[in-house]
Amino acid sequence: MTKRWNGLGIPTDRLRLFPALIALMVLAACGGDDDPVEPDPPVADAIAISPASVTLTSVGETAQFTASVTDQYGDPFTATVTWSSSDNEVFTVSPSGVVTATATGTGTVTAAVGNLSATASVTVNLPAATEISVTPESVTLTSAGETAQFTASVTDQFGDPFPADVTWSSSDTEVFTVNAAGLVTAVADGSGTVTAAVGDLSATASVTVDINLPPMVREGVRTGLTVPMAARGGPLPWLAATRFEDPDDDVLDLTYTVEVGDSAVARAEVVIDSDRNPSVVMYGVGAGTTTLTTTATDPGGLSADVTINLAVADSDYSPLGVLSVGNNKVEIPAISLVGGCSEPLVGVEGGSGYAATIHSAKWQSRADSSSAWTDIAGTEQTDGRLCSYSTQTAGEYRLVMDMTLSLDDNLDPLRGGYRSANTFIVEESTVNRAPELSARARNSMQLSVGGGPDWVVPGAHFNDPDGDDLEYTFVVSDTALISAEMQEDTLGRNLLVASGIAEGSGTITITATDPDGLTAEMSLATVVDTSGYTRAETVRIGNGSLTLSGFTINTCSPPFINAQGVDGGRYTVHSAHWQSRSDSTAAWTDIDGTQVTTGQLCPYASDTPGDYRLVYQVTAVIIPGLPALEGDYASRNFFTVSSGD
After folding, report:
1. Alpha carbon 86 to chain centroid distance?
2. Which of 101, 430, 434, 518 is the most exposed, having the fewest neighbouring CB atoms within 10 Å of its CB?
3. Which residues of 79-99 are buried (b: 16+ CB within 10 A; e: fewer)?
4. Residue 565 has what pLDDT?
5. Is the peptide bond before 51 cis (omega within 30 degrees of 0)?
6. Angle at 448 between CA 445 and CA 452, to 5 degrees
7. Closest-CA residue to 602 (of 610, 611, 570, 593)
8. Sign of CA dihedral 611, 612, 617, 620
9. What is the DSSP string of 300-360?
10. How far apart are alpha carbons 444 and 81 in whole angstroms?
11. Is the pLDDT score of 509 beyond 50?
């Protein structure tokens, strides 16, 4: 069938439907009936809370939370929000969303509207003690009852001070106590720790109680001793350190002062050598007597003093206490020159560390005490030698010298006129008199199997009042125990040398005989042990000190390497070390680290209970021209440290 089209381009068969469509469109535009179509009402659709989290750091601190509610269209919606805390012991929350800290912890705050809810985190981090320290870090108390204040610093996790009750305690209440405020009180010597504690936190500091005891005058030192001097003679040194000791081992830290009673008679000064050894140097000023007081003070201010008398004569020569003379004899401690002369004494070091140089020496005599001293022609020596003098002419005799005494390289040397401490007297007599034994003569000898030989210079112990030459012989009580021989040099000087063969005891008797057959005897009680070390009479020891030929030192001696003695002999120490034993029943054993191979003898100090001795190997040429004596030797004594020291 053929379609027909109108001018609108719509088929004519459908044109009849167009009015109906137009009518429907008009009805739709007019809403139809009288009931309109309404949108859904807004309802709470979402809730949000801010801030997302808070941290509170003190009890009662608050934070405001807010809740935002929106409807289904995303618009703000007004609704009543209900707030809640996950842990009311940590924080609470008000109906308006204000959170208040209660205790340390974490939780969530919830905002709810119906079935809707939102949460935020709440952290309560209250300050707590996290670190403790004590000041000062250490103290040393030096007297019983002395106190020291400790303080404790407590901080929290933020590094801020934290108030807390600190508990104090002492690790040893027999050494020190501590009160609730941290005040420490010394009780007795010792050391320990003081502890400050807060809960599980603690900190410590060290406490040392070293009760300072005053220095003491050494046993045997005489107060009131009179020292003779000369107004124009050489100055005399006085070894201060040998007169004092300190229970706290502060000997090297003692300071010394001197006071002279009358400056018109004498003066004195304290000098310190490179090894910190002090000496008091005394000078005569004018004839008279006065006092000299030397005071030793420790670092804590405690002190002790020694007072001696100075007797100053109107003379050119100061007496040397270590130099004595006899007819045909010159003596210093442990050495005697019998007949002849010594080698030149130039820079000779003695056991005290002093070095002596003799510039000239001569003998003087006088008829009696009312006469003036006059030089003896032909006796002056200008080459540094000391020579003995023998005479049978009645009168009084002494040795005088010009000498320099060097205390240390960094101190000015002492120089002046000196004389022997004594004189010898020859009396007129028509009758021959027997030899005499010196009051200071040895009466014992200690030998050891395998140890070095011991010796005696007979001329050092016998004297003949008539100046006669003496002949010496000897007898050994048991030759199975003791071996001995008498040696004589080309000048007629004698030397008795004895060695131990087997353990036991016996006697060696030396007889001096003058030309007329008159005699005197010297008996040596001799003991032989098996220690391997012969006892040396000239070396004594203490805890931290050595006494060599009468001089006490607290540091190593000068090296004894071919060292010259005033008698012309020479001495070499090859090695030295210390030994100890737990008690008298135990064997002596070497102490590690004490061996010295430089020729020196060094002191040793210990606080460990036991006995201690010094042993050394030495070669000695006592009289030039006679065989050298060599072997192992031990100090004359040993010192003991008790458990209570």
Report:
1. 67
2. 430
3. eebebebbeeebbbbeeebeb
4. 57
5. yes
6. 90
7. 593
8. negative
9. TS-EEEEEEEEEEESSS-EEETT-EEETTEEEETTEEEESSBPPP-SSEE-TTS-EEEEEE
10. 115
11. yes
Residue 19, SS3? helix
Cα–Cα distance, 625 to 544 (Å, whole number)? 37
Q: What is the pLDDT of residues 403-422, one digit of tens each?
A: 999 888 788 899 999 999 99
Amino acid at 320: L
Residues 6+ apart with CB under 8 A from 167: 180, 196, 197, 198
Give me 645's structure tokens: 């020291």
Q: 45-49, 92-96, 569-573: lowest mean pLDDT where?
A: 569-573
Residues 388 and 327: their CA atoms lie apart, in Å, by 8
Partner residues linked to 473 by β-bridges: 511
Residue-wise pLDDT for 219-242, tens only, equals 777 778 899 999 999 999 887 877
pLDDT > 70? residue 10 = no
pLDDT tier at 352 (50, 70, 90 boundaries)?
low
CA–CA gap between residue 197 and residue 195 (Å, rounded): 6
The pLDDT assigned to 1 comes to 41
pTM for the complete prediction?
0.54
CA angle 311, 317, 318 (to 5 degrees): 45
State how beta strands 348-349 and 355-366 pair: antiparallel
Side-chain-side CA neighbours of 288 within 13 Å: the count stands at 12
Rounded CA separation 333/532 (Å) = 26
Exposure string of 475-491, with b = 16+ CB inside 10 Å and e = fewer, is: ebeeeebbebeeeeeee
Rounded to an integer, what distance in angstroms lies between the CA atom of residue 471 and that of residue 426?
A: 20
To which residue do tokens 């939780």 refer? 107
Reported as a single tens digit per residue, the pLDDT across 90-139 is 999 999 999 999 999 999 999 999 999 999 999 998 898 999 999 999 99
Give phi and psi for 109, each to the nearest 5.
-105, 135
Residue 436: which H helix or E strand, with range?
strand 436-437
Q: Average of pLDDT values for 599-618?
A: 94
Which residues, including other chains, have CB under 8 Å from residue 211's CB and lie 6 or more apart?
A: 141, 142, 143, 144, 186, 188, 189
